[in-house]
Amino acid sequence: MFSSTRTFVRSSILHRCKSTLVVAEHNNETLNPVTLNTITAAKKIGGDVTVLVAGTKCGPASEAVSKIQGVGKVIVAESDAFKGFTPESLTPLVLAAQNQFKFTHILAGATAFGKNVLPRVAAKLDVSPISEIIDVKSEDTFVRTIYAGNAVLTLKSTDAIKVITVRGTNFEAAGAGGSAAIEQAPAGEYKSALCEFVSQELTKSDRPELAGAKVIVSGGRGLKSGDNFKLLYNLADKFGAAVGASRAAVDAGFVPNDLQIGQTGKIVAPDLYIAVGISGAIQHLAGMKDSKTIVAINKDPEAPIFQVSDIGLVADLFKAVPELTEKI
């Protein structure tokens, strides 16, 4: 009887000690939507969820996080050291938070931001990072894709601290309805002597960002030149859509690499994805196959893109796209 009671208490203590830190991605004013998806993944792990918000004047971002359902606490670090959100300054902050609060899991979105910071954190903690999970089975068992999304791997981590990036398109965005406390993150000198943020230039566009777009019109090498992407811009304007591209189109110099969709580009899952002149290489499919409806336009009836599309049109894109644009 005594032994049974002691086992129950130990189990309860372990459950209470389970806790997750989510490193928020933001621009000081608003959250990157992937943070909301990552919070959902953290909630699925179980235990307490804490969100770290680091920036220069990040009060609005921290307030937004505190109102997300399921967030227990927000810890905030404001300093000029975090200008540009460089991993060299953020990594020691995450480690300081880990040292103080003893999290069992550390999560961030599987974006350029998350992939820059968390591998450094994992190296410092001497654990193996787990990249781009698409599901959570338990606190130590996760699902991720391999081979450009063409196979699924379920893995169990024995590390005491799990450091994980989350593929946002596989988790619903956490909703509003929370009222988390906001506290100060551990103080320290986080300015890096090895790296200094100088400036950044942002491309301005009236079109939505790829990551959060409901409709995406994407072009491949079949467009033959960058000038011909105007066909896609005209079509996208009819939908209020974002414009993307395959790696082949980017490598050919048709469009800048911030439009690239795929395993080495951006991962998207819009309501509607229109693939124009894209053959459908595995690398590209890994970045858009979770779209709710996929429409493919390609003159090659054997193109792999038709294997994942819901609607396929075998036609010359230079005739089909202007006609489609005119009819919408």
Question: Would you kindly provide a written description of the structure presented here, covering whatever features stand out?
Answer:
The protein is of the alpha/beta class. It folds into two domains: 11-184, 3-Layer(aba) Sandwich (Rossmann fold); 210-327, Rossmann fold, CATH 3.40.50.1220. The chain contains nine helices and 14 strands. The strands form two sheets. The protein has a nine-stranded mixed beta sheet with strand order 7-6-5-8-4-1-2-3-9, sandwiched between helices. A five-stranded parallel beta sheet has the order 11-10-12-13-14. The longest helix is centred in the N-terminal third of the chain and has 16 residues, at 2-17. The radius of gyration is 22 Å and the shape is globular. The N and C termini lie far apart (73 Å). Residues 1-16 have low confidence and may be disordered.
Question: What is the CA–CA distance across the termini?
Answer: 73 Å
CATH architecture of the largest domain: 3-Layer(aba) Sandwich
Low-pLDDT sequence parts: 1-16
H and E order: HEHEHEHEHEEEEEEHEHEHEEH
Give the percentage of residues in beta strands. 15-25%
Main β-sheet: number of strands, strand sense, barrel status? 9 strands, mixed
Mean pLDDT over the residues:
91
Q: Overall 3D geometry?
A: globular
Q: Kindly report the oligomeric state of this protein.
A: single chain
How many domains make up the 3D coordinates?
Answer: 2
Task: Please state the structural category.
Answer: alpha/beta
CATH fold assignment of the largest domain:
Rossmann fold
Strand numbers in spatial order across the main sheet = 7-6-5-8-4-1-2-3-9
